[in-house]
Write the structure tokens for this entry.
Amino acid sequence: MSVRKGTYVLFVTFGSDTNITVGALGPHLFKAGTYCYVGSAMAGLDQRLKRHLAHDKKLKWHIDYLTTVCDSSEAWISYPDPIPECELAERAEALGGIPEMDRFGCSDCRCRTHLFRVDASAMADTVSQLHLARYRFVSLQDKP
């Protein structure tokens, strides 16, 4: 059985302003609201998103610093024909995402950031116009 591969968007919400030190990127004040993080999982979409959506985990990626303390998070996937990660980030910004923290989630590319602050309209447009599907865990046993 093969693993699902794809790109994704995580919407992470904070109910109040939250100061977070994001690894080597340093401290940052995340204002109350929703943030859109863009990522890829070409070695296992389900494993990556299951990890991202968990609150308790070892801090490894920039997004872990947010998902361990956020009030809520949800994942949407670009699958089975994924939009490439950097293009997905560009399009999320074009649909109203405001770049939040330089170099967040993009230490291996030339993008400014893969993290954007979004309002309800930008969030809805990102999901609908990019044809994202709400993430649902699929185990290898569930696949035909």
Observations:
- The helical segments are 45-53, 64-67, 85-94, 120-129.
- Confidence is low (pLDDT under 50) at residues 140-144.
